[in-house]
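PROTOCOL LOG
Step 1. Enter all chains and additional molecules of the complex.
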Amino acid sequence: MTKIISVNDLSYQYPDADRPTLNHISFEVNAGEWVAIVGHNGSGKSTLVRALDGLIDFKSGTVTVAGTKLSPESVWLVREHIGMVFQNPDNQFVGATVADDVAFGLENAGVPRPEMQQRVQDALEAVDMWQFAEREPSRLSGGQKQRVALAGIIAMNPSIIVLDEATSMLDPHGRQTVLSVLQHLRRSNQAPTILSITHDLSEAAQAQRLLVMDNGQLISEGTPRAIFSDEQLLESTGLDLPFSTKLSQQLAKQGLIAPKHYLTDDELEDWLWQLHLTM
Amino acid sequence: MLEQLTLGRYIPGHSWLHRLDPRAKLVLACYFIVIAFLTTNWLTYVLMFAFIGGVIFLTGLSFSYFVRGIGPLIWLIVFTAILQLLFTPGGHIYWHWGILMITSTGIQTSTAVFLRFLLIITMATVLTLTTAPLAIADGVEALLRPLRVIHFPVAQTALMLSVALRFVPTLLDEAQTIMNAQRARGVEFNNGGLIKRLRAIVPLLIPLFVGAIGRADDLATAMESRGYQGATNRTRYRVLKWHNADTIAVVVILVLNVVLVVLRHM
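Step 2. Run joint prediction.
Step 3. Record the structure below.
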């Protein structure tokens, strides 16, 4: 498999900080993979993805994106490969209307107007927001704004989509609509690589691989199943347990011992149904 | 309190005037304001008021919107007119007390000031009621474009203007949230004397500024990640189109100008 992101021995310290925010980080992401980065506040997750996009000026280590080594000269080339969606829906909405906002990246890239109109419409249809094209952002919900932000990224057709806690300020319904857009994208022909930072473990469970960060270091990586089964790791990094794990623990206290490995919500539900049959 | 602060008071609609090109509307509104000063005799005033009446009719908006638009400024107009009335010497003196006097010239000039102000403000209200703030920003950009010759950053200014307009409702919302939070902590915004009220504004403004700076930082990061490198080589999604209706509007106002000049000499 081709590596689309390679990070090698990356370190970074904010000018006024007393300890490094990123401490000798190395990892790789395969093209087409969905990787989630988890870790508590201040563990360096956001700084890490900002470094990938050249949004912070790191001094040591290398970042290579789609074959291009990140440097002050190549930063705009690298940014063409990466589309980022940030946490706050309001603070990344540049355009005065939905369509204007989706067009912003295309305008920056100098895309001719007729092509731009088509791509804006296609992207808005992909996130089911075309009927709101002329709306102003103040008349949209948080989930709708984040879908518009995603449309702005989709219109640019980048090979990598980075979500920096993009769903953390949304209500459960808004979060679900954003996630379903991502799942839909994953099923398309040119499935983008997704790198998502999240606190929501049920969201992280959708990824193929998890990177766990603590104190500026990458302390563990593995499939969601492996990570969620490692209760010690989850507790030592201050991460919440996924709902299904919590439920298994409570059931164990009642004398119902669920399988030891991590189960998704659906798997646990199935197990419970079958348990009823065998009792 | 904040709901009344809506910028421009734009009322969406589909009238002929709503659909005019914002460039045309901006230029024509300015042109009308200039020729409003050509009014001399009662015929010219009748013509101008008939014209503005026609324009108001064409907006398709209820007359009450215009009354509300002019309302806050009426006292300023009346005040200016009264000053003109009391301090203009010349002609027949009807009444005087110290330096104050009412003269025939004073009555004429103050009436002229009152009527011209009314024309100007009504036209400005027509512009803001029928043109979305974003369209006005587009129009201003197009009209400023010649300034690029002297290296004035027209595109950047236009983007700044459009981002500022886009953040008005966001910041109003935030101000409302902060006000509610401060009210919950016992701050009174609507009571007490002037000094007390001004003091109450401080705990509102400081968090609002801190928040706005944080938002600006986030927005700059988002814009950079989306490839914004200043104004070079950008294309435009939104373009203005000049229609026949815009040309007709220009012709109409030129005809108005000619008729006005003719009536002046009657």
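Step 4. Note key features.
Strands of chain A lie at 3-12, 22-30, 34-38, 60-65, 68-69, 82-85, 160-164, 193-197, 209-214, 217-222.
Chain A has two domains: 3-228, 242-279.
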